[in-house]
Amino acid sequence: MDSDVILTAVNAVESITNPPHTPERSSYRARKTVEQIIHLIFLLCGIVAVAFVLLISIYLILSGLPAIRQIGLFQFLLGKVWDPTNTTTGAQYGILPFILTSVYGTAGAIVIGVPVGLLTAVFLAKVAPPKLAAVIRTAVQLLAGIPSVVYGLVGMIVLVPAIRNLFHLSSGACLLAAMIVLAIMILPSIINVSETALRAVPKEYEEASLALGAAEMETYFRVSVHAARSGIAAAVVLGVGRAIGEAMAIILVAGNVSNMPGLFTPVRFLTTGIISGMAYASVGSLYQQALYSIGLVLFLFIMLINVFKKKAAKKSGDFIVHCMMDEIGRLHPNNIKGILQFANSRNIYLINSSPTSYNPYDYRYTYLLSKHGVRTRVEKLLKRIN
Q1: Residue 226 — very low, low, confident or very high, per pLDDT cuts 50/70/90?
Q2: Contacts of 169 (CB under 8 A, 6+ apart)
Q3: I need a labelling partner for 167 at 20 to 30 A (CA). Which of 47, 107, 304, 358 fits?
Q4: CA nearest to 83, candidates 201, 257, 321, 208
Q5: SS3 of residue 93 by DSSP
Q6: Residue 115 has what pLDDT?
Q7: What is the mean pLDDT of the chain?
Q8: What pLDDT sits at residue 179?
Q9: CB count, 10 Å around CB of 133?
Q10: CB-count exposure of residue 148 (10 Å: 0-12, 13-18, 19+)
């Protein structure tokens, strides 16, 4: 009898520690295997992306450094003359005109394009009726799909003659034409990313500002835009990257002449300098190596832009303004609880920024307003309470 009991107990323990092979367990193992394979595929894709960046970086460094060593770093970066085919007085490889032209052209495009793009994004995200917003959004998407050479062709046919006639120039192919074309080209990036960032702002922020007496436009620009500033900064950086890396459209409207930049002067960008010279440089020559060095400089520009993007997107603190309840208490010391009750009944959000205790006299609340507007809004609340 005791042996039967012991045998039964042993069989029960074995059945628990070694459960029978069930279809559910097989299905779970199969799903787990599939998930591991998918994770491995994702990992390989990420490694490939990083490998491409590393290979491009290494290639540019190895190809660009020999020319910089032979020419001289300061002579290459600060030289004002680019004349690599001069055989009488000697070739010169100064790219300062290219650098300044790229910087000025990109800055001009940002100055023109960012206000237009940001205002359009605010209009689409906050103001426009749905049907009108759909039409404008479709037009913006079509604008993003136009090839850059088409922008350059239209600019050469329409914009360049218009600038020539308007300002009475011998040639309308100049830095101003390049700025305008670049500003139009970066609009889709700025509009789409900024609109997405604005739509991601919680509705409670805007409702709180409107409930505290702010106008709609004041709320959109001082609350929504401020809350979406990281996304808007990313949109601007994307626009800068698009502008500084553009070549085909610029070569058709900028004049493609190695001059120091002027608003109405034919100029050459870093990108167009590479395109213009690569067809004429012999393989392995100093000229070709100098063109690779220009590519290295352009690559460093893009890296700096990405660093700036990360700095701009880094939060320096919450966008909303903190106001101590004791400051409100000095306005009306006996009615702090009344303010809280009134705010709650009117859906005015007083957001808790340190939810450790509830003490209305030293409890910090957050107002979705600019700093100089807090006291005015509190006074309005007090008048309505009384």
Answers
A1: confident
A2: 163, 264
A3: 107
A4: 257
A5: strand
A6: 94
A7: 78
A8: 95
A9: 16
A10: middle
How far is 292 from 66, CA to CA, in rounded Å?
A: 10
Return the pLDDT at 337: 52
- Which residue type is seen at 369? L
Q: H or E segment at 330?
A: helix 325-331
Q: Which contiguous run of DSSP H or E holds residue 206?
A: helix 203-211
CA–CA dist 104, 114 (Å, integer): 15
* 367 pLDDT tier (thresholds 50, 70, 90): very low
- pLDDT at site 344: 47
Cβ atoms of residues 267 and 255 within 8 Å: yes
Could you tell me the two tokens for 264? 């109405």
Q: Which residues pair with 215 in a beta bridge?
A: none
What gap in Å lies between CA 244 and CA 100, rounded to an integer?
11
Residue with tokens 């491409």: 52
Tokens of 260: 């120091």
Q: Name the nearest CA neighbour of 260 among 99, 39, 91.
A: 99
Cα–Cα distance measured from residue 228 to residue 196, given in angstroms and rounded to the nearest whole number: 9
Nearest CA to 76 out of 68, 85, 84, 64 is that of 68
Q: Residue 216: its pLDDT value, please?
A: 87
Rounded to 5 degrees, what are φ and ψ at 201? -70, 130
Considering the entire predicted model, what is its pTM? Answer: 0.72
Q: How far apart are CA 199 and CA 319, in angstroms?
A: 16
Q: Strand 92-93 vs strand 82-83: parallel, antiparallel, or unpaired?
A: antiparallel
Least confident of 92-101, 144-153, 168-177, 352-361: 352-361
* pLDDT tens-digit series, residues 268-321: 999 999 988 888 888 888 888 999 999 999 988 888 887 776 766 554 333 333
The residues near 312 (Cβ < 8 Å, ≥ 6 apart) are 230, 233, 234, 236, 237
Copy the structure tokens of residue 114: 């960012």
Helix orientation angle between 23-71 and 286-313, rounded to the nearest 10 degrees: 130
Look-up of token digits 């893009």: 302
- Number of helices and strands (H, E) in the chain? 18, 5
